[in-house]
Amino acid sequence: MEKHVPKELSGLRGWLNRRLFDLHTPEGQRTNRFIMLAIVLSVFISMFGTVPDLAVRWQRAITAFEYLVSVLFALEYAARLYAAEHPRKYALSFYGLVDLMTFLPMFIFGDPGLAVRLLRVLRLLKLVRYLKALQLFIHSLRDVFDIMLVVAAAIFLVVLIGGNLAYFLEGEGMLDPPTFRNAFEGAWWALVTMTTVGYGDIVPHTPAGKVLAAALMMLGLTMFAMLTGTISVKIAHALSYHRACRKCERLISQEFVYCPFCGADQREEEDKED
Amino acid sequence: MEKHVPKELSGLRGWLNRRLFDLHTPEGQRTNRFIMLAIVLSVFISMFGTVPDLAVRWQRAITAFEYLVSVLFALEYAARLYAAEHPRKYALSFYGLVDLMTFLPMFIFGDPGLAVRLLRVLRLLKLVRYLKALQLFIHSLRDVFDIMLVVAAAIFLVVLIGGNLAYFLEGEGMLDPPTFRNAFEGAWWALVTMTTVGYGDIVPHTPAGKVLAAALMMLGLTMFAMLTGTISVKIAHALSYHRACRKCERLISQEFVYCPFCGADQREEEDKED
Amino acid sequence: MEKHVPKELSGLRGWLNRRLFDLHTPEGQRTNRFIMLAIVLSVFISMFGTVPDLAVRWQRAITAFEYLVSVLFALEYAARLYAAEHPRKYALSFYGLVDLMTFLPMFIFGDPGLAVRLLRVLRLLKLVRYLKALQLFIHSLRDVFDIMLVVAAAIFLVVLIGGNLAYFLEGEGMLDPPTFRNAFEGAWWALVTMTTVGYGDIVPHTPAGKVLAAALMMLGLTMFAMLTGTISVKIAHALSYHRACRKCERLISQEFVYCPFCGADQREEEDKED
Amino acid sequence: MEKHVPKELSGLRGWLNRRLFDLHTPEGQRTNRFIMLAIVLSVFISMFGTVPDLAVRWQRAITAFEYLVSVLFALEYAARLYAAEHPRKYALSFYGLVDLMTFLPMFIFGDPGLAVRLLRVLRLLKLVRYLKALQLFIHSLRDVFDIMLVVAAAIFLVVLIGGNLAYFLEGEGMLDPPTFRNAFEGAWWALVTMTTVGYGDIVPHTPAGKVLAAALMMLGLTMFAMLTGTISVKIAHALSYHRACRKCERLISQEFVYCPFCGADQREEEDKED
Asked: Which of A41, B53, C56, D132 has a CA positioned 20 to 30 A from the CA of residue A23?
């Protein structure tokens, strides 16, 4: 979507395009680093606005900064819309919509309440644009998604069964006061136990409840070991198969001298006589 | 057990068999997705029945829905029994018994109490049928089971020794009030510490108890690192070596065109001219 | 130490030796399984003795069982001493000393207090004898020990620095009431945070303390990821290099047709013409 | 920096240089082990000084020991400065500055307060000098740093978004009393949840808050599984490919006798007749 500047965009449009969309040039990097700083700053300022003491004392500065940032993002949006190769495509893209949402609510509703404040946090989604490495990472993990879904489904099943069992063992009518006020609290406790988060807000009191907890801990640790193992294997694969064969262009290990698929020699011409 | 429909099953029986047992056809997927939805819904409704406020306000709706679902599952069971290739074999199979348990208690006992409510949750076991991927996963891990048993036995040993040591250090007669009221509480704390769950319901107060906790944490993390490591290695093996060579029948990577052991070509006849 | 019965031990001694030391025969397995059961049972009974209610109600039964088990272990010790190939070597071995400690204190001191009770738990160490797989496992990890020591030393360093820093930020004189009463509490909190146990008995209250906690969490997770990674790699190595070369007897991969060290062909004679 | 003693340093200077800088000689190891002991002891004594009871009772001994250690470290510094090959280079190096900081504040300010006490803990940084293995380890992980930065950035993003969402769901004006007093508390809770530390100081109370917690737990576990996986792969690579081929200079396994790329024999001349 954010391709290099093609030749036909020139003048102001080309200049803006390079500065806003092209992260491969020093100017583009400088502009975008400034925008990143503005995003993180504005989110922190917005969070300071939720601390009662600070919110009252700095109210004016916070509001002023908020308007300043909104204007800045509005200008950025206008500039991007003007400079984009396909303005309509940009406007309807994920980043285009996020860019629009970062200033529009401020201009329509002002700064009345919580919901608008939350929308401001969505500015952070603008940052995803710069986490190229993360996107590549996620992309390389795409074929692990079905295993992750299976693990998630298995956890969902175990949490529901474990939670109901917990409610059966230490719920209303079995223990007084009950450890779990309802089966949902049981499921919440089962999740907190399986993930080894262990807040300690709910803890089983009977021997049977503790045995159930032990089983959930072991199951959870095994399941997450499976997840870690699967991801490790996929990462190992992604990190070692990252050279395209000179002939068939399939991804092969950096270390192979001959392509295992088509047999083509991977050495440079001058290396062949080694 | 749930094979493709053989030719001899025709008419209504064949039609039902395809819809209920055959997950490879669109009709079969549709029917089974509807059953899955009914299972999850009925479990959630059953859990809502444990929340005092909701249980009173929605009592009628919940009971009505409960009967509806029970009738649905009874019909499903009857249809499966009628359409199965080997009805007796289905009735005695794991899934057959689970299917029967999902509606029978409701018709025999009505909705009196906790035990029947728990049986309702067992409906979730019907879902295991659809987690084919999970079954394959567990199957591929079968030879890790002995290592997992050894890890479990080692944890059992360390938890018992650690728990008794903890009781010796901060139990009745050593500390007032004692951190651990009996040796079982010590073992429970040792387990919660080793798995890094750390509820915080019991926390050591003396320097000696804290040193013991540190030892248990390090031991636990090392043990679970071993578990994760072993599972990772097995998954790596399962993911990369899962095709038998066409000639020597040794397990080789899915990606190899030629067997690295005997050199046999692994391609289908019609693919060879690629 | 526990070798197969040599020919010269015959009569009662040979019969006992097979039953007590030889885990490869069905009789030996039966005898040792009975001893294992007695060990686990006696430890659980001893733990029941620490629960005030049960201890009073079942006092007589517990004491009687305790004497019974002690006599049983004394008989086992005597039989092992008599049947061992090298009685003195057995008596001075780790297992010989553990076997002796499991009944001697009971006969000398009776059942007066906590310390003797703790010695009883040491009976569990007898079980280590049966965890052959665990011993092999630990053995294969011997060369990871130096990496584990480095990780342990690094954690020790970070815990001390983090703990003192924490005390500096939220200790006596900085916060009222102080989060940490002394620098040792700071170190304890740093350890509980780094291992992600998170009891919650001590939690930082100031922004600076929370930033320190975040740094400790990230450091801890990275360190334990390193530990898991190193152990995974070693396990992968141990699991894949488990066949001795037919000629040079070095450990090589199951999959190699030729030894990478001496070049010897690893195939059976009849397979060579494949 | 701490190279072997060159020939031209002789007499006292050479003798000191060997003892202080050369960890390959027995004398050097003995001197440095003594310094290590002094460092650890002095930090522990300094920590004892923060325990009110002990601080009062042992005040004189602690102060005396503190002066003793400061003098020892001053002498060590002077000796190192005198014996170093390039005294100015040592004085300006990381270790030189740390060595200076371990005694200077004591002589300038005496023992007045917390800040000086904290500086004393920096003595532990002197120990980093001896953790060669750790330095090698960190060095071999240098190319994982960008992945770790991406993971850290992703966690930062999720913590900010999750924390603001949490404040929106259970903050001031939404729940009474609010679970989170401001958005920063939300971010702190999100971090504690994602890392599975789970102190339990803040726990969500509404169904929506608990669903958010579940999402954060799963995201956190997946992210740290990625981190573990990446580190595992890098360690596997570092442990197996760390010798350059004698002929083609590509990295190959330590265990290979022949280079798998060019076939060159990797043995020393005198080993070839093995």
From this structure: A41
Return d(Cα B104, Cα A48) in angstroms, integer. 58
Residues 214-273 on C with a CB inside 8 Å of D are: 214, 217-218, 221-222, 225-226, 228-230, 232-233, 236, 260-261
Q: Percentage of chain A surpassing pLDDT 70?
A: 74
* CB atoms D196 and A196 under 8 Å: yes
Mean pLDDT of all residues in C92-100: 88
Q: What is the pLDDT of residue D3?
A: 45
User: Which tens digit of pLDDT belongs to each residue from B151-199?
Assistant: 788 889 899 999 999 998 998 878 888 999 989 999 999 999 999 999 9
Q: How confident is the model at residue D160 (pLDDT cuts 50, 70, 90)?
A: very high
Q: Which residues of B touch D198 (CB under 8 A)?
A: 197-198
Q: Which of the two residues, A115 and A234, has the higher pLDDT score?
A: A234
pLDDT of B49? 84
Distance CA B103, CA B52 (A): 24
What confidence tier does C208 reach under pLDDT thresholds 50, 70, 90? Answer: very high
Q: Are strands A251-253 and C251-252 parallel, antiparallel or unpaired?
A: unpaired
Q: How many C-beta atoms surround the C-beta of residue B220 within 10 A? A: 25
Angle, to 10 degrees, between the axis of helix C207-240 and the axis of helix D183-194? 20
Do B196 and D196 make contact, defined as CB atoms within 8 angstroms? yes
Q: Is A59 on the interface with B (CB under 8 A)?
A: no
Nearest CA in chain D to C226: D231
The reply to whether residue A200 touches residue C200, judged by beta carbons under 8 angstroms, is: yes
Q: At what angle do helices C207-240 and B207-240 cross, to 10 degrees?
A: 50
Tell me the C-alpha distance between B88 and B97, whole Å: 11
Cis peptide before A177 (omega within 30 of 0): yes
- Res. B220: pLDDT tops 70: yes
User: What phi, psi does D157 have (nearest 5°)?
Assistant: -60, -50
Q: Write down all domains in chain B, each with its CATH number in brackets.
A: 11-130 (1.20.120.350), 143-244 (1.10.287.70)
Q: Would the CB atoms of A200 and C199 count as touching at under 8 Å?
A: yes
Structure tokens at D256: 């290979």
Q: From CA D193, how far away is CA D189, in angstroms rounded?
A: 6
Residues 6+ apart with CB under 8 A from A265: A246, A257, A258, A272
Decide if pLDDT at B83 tops 80: yes
Ramachandran category for residue A229: left, alpha or beta (phi over 0 → left; psi -120 to 50 → alpha): alpha
Check residue B273 and give its pLDDT.
Answer: 43
State residue A5's pLDDT score.
46
Are D51 and C147 within 8 A, CB to CB?
A: no
CB D183 within 8 A of CB D168: no
D257 vs C171, C184, C261: nearest CB:
C261
Bigger pLDDT: B46 vs D273: B46
Q: C236: distance to nearest CA of chain B, Å?
A: 5
Neighbours of B94 (CB within 10 A): 11
Neighbouring chains of B at 3+ CB pairs within 8 Å? Answer: A, C, D
CB C184 within 8 A of CB D44: no
Q: What is the mean pLDDT of residues B136-163?
A: 78
What digits encode the pLDDT tens for the residues D27-52?
A: 888 888 888 888 888 888 888 888 88
B132 or D20: whose pLDDT is higher?
Answer: D20
Q: How many interface pairs between C and D have CB atoms less than 8 angstroms apart?
A: 126
D40 in contact with A at a CB cutoff of 8 Å? no
Contact C246, C262 (CB under 8 A): no
Q: What is the ipTM of this complex?
A: 0.84
The verdict on C183 touching D (C-beta cutoff 8 Å) is yes
d(CA C252, CA B40): 51
Enumerate neighbours of D (3 or more CB pairs within 8 A). Answer: A, B, C
